[in-house]
Amino acid sequence: MLSHERIWSALDSLAERYGLTASGLARRAGLDATAFNKSKRRGSDGRDRWPSTESVSKVLQATGSSLDEFLTLVQGEQPARESAFAGSAIPPQPAPIPLLGFAQAGAGGFFDDGGFPAGQGWDVVDFPAAASTRPGVYALEIQGDSMMPLYRDGDILIVEPGAQVRRGDRVVVRTREGEVMAKVLHRQTQRGIDLVSLNPEHPNRSFDTDEIDWMARIIWASQ
């Protein structure tokens, strides 16, 4: 049964599964940081204030969760799906994976032809053990504000090269000229790709296929 308490509890559960506060979940969804605060859940007259369907939709998109998974949380249950990143609980056991600053990713020698980590100069960072079991998974640390409001300076993206990429996925793309960017994949054809910027102040981009060195899917982000 849908109720005011269960809807908010489901949002809190979703935030917890990603290691976020309610404010962190709101920020990741591109909402005001106070949108999910407990003080905002009732009006000044004491009446229940419900999250909008638009807010819930943005949360699901930002976390990669499905509506079915969210409704399962509303019912007070845990989704049966076992995925460490797209809408399921992240195991607490840490394991080291390669870490590189976002600006460094544009330099040569850090990746092979398939976009997998290679060479020297990588640091390591402890992340959920399930991440380290995926072949070639690595982490990039955001530097600067070009990806706000979704990703901020110091956030860490976990990237999986070789993973299937579909329209609407958040991806990291490296051009053959060494430019590295995080965008949303809008369209991919045999001739090229169209990318949408995370930050509305930065332009969308389009590239011919022969201009792309590699593209990898973002499967999780810290907050």
Relevant terms:
223 residues, alpha+beta, 434 Repressor (Amino-terminal Domain), Umud Fragment, subunit A, 2 domains, 9-stranded mixed beta sheet, 5 helices
Structure described in brief:
The protein has 223 residues and is α+β, with helices and mostly antiparallel strands.
What does this structure look like?
By secondary structure, the chain is α+β, with helices and mostly antiparallel strands. It has two domains: 4-74, 434 Repressor (Amino-terminal Domain) (Orthogonal Bundle), CATH 1.10.260; 94-221, Umud Fragment, subunit A. It is 20% helix and 26% strand. The protein is built from five helices and nine strands. The protein has helices at residues 4-17, 22-28, 53-63, 67-74, 129-132; strands at residues 94-101, 123-128, 138-141, 156-160, 170-175, 180-188, 192-197, 205-208, 212-221. It has a nine-stranded mixed beta sheet with strand order 2-1-3-4-9-5-6-7-8. A hairpin with a 4-residue loop joins strand 5 (170-175) and strand 6 (180-188). Helix 1 (4-17) crosses helix 4. The longest helix is centred in the N-terminal third of the chain and has 14 residues, at 4-17. The protein is elongated. Mean pLDDT is 80; it is low at 80-93.
